[in-house]
Write a structure and sequence with these properties.
The chain is mainly β. It is about 10% helix and about 45% strand. It folds into 2 domains: about 120 residues, Lipocalin (Beta Barrel), CATH 2.40.128; about 90 residues, Immunoglobulins (Immunoglobulin-like, Sandwich), CATH 2.60.40.10. The protein contains 1 helix and 16 strands.
Length: about 220
């Protein structure tokens, strides 16, 4: 009798998994306004396709899916390359006893001076002031009590500088070694809830902040 019960339970759980896989197949649309052009389709051969839109930026990701513990697990065909280049290359730094921090910024591969880079001073995790580099790539920030300085430029790696004895830095900013404007999935788990798929991870559209995305199944 015990063996029969175990067999019946196995059949029940196995059939439940099959039914779950069949139930979630189909296409889903986003309910997030900024991503209204995004579609997620689950096919019956464990293949998915995700056509994503972030404002005017669009792309398509393909990969494999499976269901485990009521979670949809996704792995894209393309995976991000492990980045070992570092955030920046320090060309020089020194103490000039100035009342300002001065950053001399260069584009990747030391090609040109970097105009229009943004510098932010932070206290307790909040932005205190913002500054911008001039046409000579010079970013000047008054010395005030702060926790850190963050320098950013679209498409280049963000730099974090902690105040120390130095007040002049000559820096070459680095590029990302993979396309950050691409929707990668690496053992990514989405919650299955009735006719919704729910994502609570990062994506290309929220620039590093956590976002809850609801995908509504199209009947």
């Amino acid at each position: 009798m015990k063996h029969i019960t175990i067999i019946l339970l196995f059949i029940y759980f196995f059939s439940s998994c099959i039914n779950k896989r069949k139930y979630i197949q189909g296409c889903y649309k986003t309910e997030t306004k900024f991503e209204l052009g995004s579609w997620f389709c689950i096919e019956n051969d464990s293949v998915f396709s995700f056509t994503w839109q972030c404002g005017l930026i669009t792309g398509k990701t393909k990969g494999k899916w499976k269901v485990k513990n009521n979670k949809l697990i996704l792995n894209s065909e393309l995976q991000p390359i492990i980045d070992t280049t570092g955030d920046y290359k320090l060309k020089d730094k020194k103490n000039t006893n100035s009342d300002y921090w001065t950053f001399e910024l260069f584009t990747p591969y030391n090609k040109t001076k970097l105009e229009g880079a943004n510098g932010y001073t932070y206290i307790d995790g909040k932005i205190k002031n913002s500054y911008i580099s001039d046409n000579e790539g010079i970013l000047i920030i008054p010395k005030n009590p702060i926790d850190s300085i963050i320098i950013s430029y679209i498409g280049l790696k963000e730099i974090t500088i902690k105040p120390d004895i130095y007040d002049f830095y000559s820096i070459m900013m680095n590029e990302y070694s993979y396309d950050i404007m691409y929707e990668f999935f690496t053992k990514t788990k989405w919650i299955i809830r009735r006719n919704y798929l729910i994502s609570r991870g990062f994506n290309v559209c929220n620039f590093g902040k956590k976002l809850k995305r609801y995908k509504n199944k199209i009947q």
